[in-house]
Design brief:
Layout lengths: L17 H8 L2 H12 L17 H31 L3 H27 L5 H8 L2 H15 L3 H26 L2 H29 L3 H29 L3 H16 L6
Helix pairs in contact: 3-4, 3-5, 3-6, 3-7, 3-9, 4-8, 6-7, 6-9, 7-8, 7-9, 7-10, 9-10
């Protein structure tokens, strides 16, 4: 009997040549396969059967304040991603950003819904009232970069600085969060990792041969750092973490920025 032919498995994505790799990971097909694996069966970012943990009024109030800051960050990324599509220099970047718009819209939706679950009647009004001035100013500055067609600076601010901040804070928060919030944050973190990868890849290729742009973005990073660290300090305080936790989270953020050689 003839041996049965076996299917050749598709190549692992990181084994592809650079051009094919970008075509693959920036596609809607890749995005769908990625998110379907961890969003299937969820309702507003968490399993329908997950019950609420008991929470003191103080802890509930702190959580709401933290979620308000998260909502500003996600709104900033949603609005900036949609604006960046028009100035993206390649088709692949436009397609990737269109998937990021969907991600950010989902993040904002589930976070606002989480606030409603916690008893907030008007989450958007609560965000206006409670959000840290640092993250509000960061959002304004990011949208100015998009409006000014500054592709490299806007991608750095959004997909490196903002996404790195959210990645490390959400991941640390999820370690000690109530069960529902933990499930919501874990799903968001998986998206943030993909967004950071796009930003680092896009900027890494562009800055490798453009020292003047690298120097300009290094200076720009120093302008934004105090806004990031102010927001980080406010968030850590509301989460009830101690000073060593704040330093750990701050170090993780700086390590993410340093990967592009922009820490100096």
């Amino acid at each position: 009997m003839a041996a049965r032919a076996t299917e050749t498995p598709p190549p692992e994505v990181h084994d592809l040549d650079p051009g094919t790799f970008l075509e693959e990971v920036h596609s809607f097909e890749f995005w769908f396969q990625a998110v379907e694996g961890y969003l299937s069966g969820l309702t507003f970012g968490h399993k329908p059967g997950t019950s609420e943990d008991a929470m003191s009024p103080t802890d509930r109030d702190r959580l709401i304040s933290v979620l308000c800051n998260y909502c500003v960050g996600e709104t900033a990324a949603l609005e900036a991603s949609s604006g960046l599509i028009a100035i993206a220099p390649t088709r692949l970047a436009k397609v990737f950003l269109s998937t990021q718009v969907v991600d950010e819209g989902r993040h904002l939706e589930v976070l606002l819904h989480r606030m409603r679950d916690l008893g907030v009647a008007d989450p958007e009004a609560e965000v206006e009232k409670r959000a840290s001035p640092g993250i509000v100013t960061f959002k304004r500055r990011l949208l100015e970069l998009v409006a000014g067609n500054d592709w490299e600076s806007a991608i750095f601010a959004q997909n490196v600085i903002l996404e790195s901040l959210e990645f490390v804070v959400f991941r640390r928060h999820a370690e000690n969060a109530d069960r529902v919030t933990r499930e919501v944050l874990e799903g968001i973190v998986k998206d943030e990792r993909r967004h950071i990868g796009f930003g680092e890849n896009e900027l890494g290729r562009r800055l490798a041969t453009a020292p003047a742009k690298r120097a300009r973005i290094r200076e720009f990073r120093q302008e934004l750092d105090h806004l990031v660290l102010e927001t980080l300090s406010d968030t850590v305080k509301h989460l009830g973490l101690d000073r060593s936790d704040e330093q750990d989270v701050g170090r993780m953020y700086m390590e993410a920025v340093a990967r592009l050689g922009l820490a100096g």
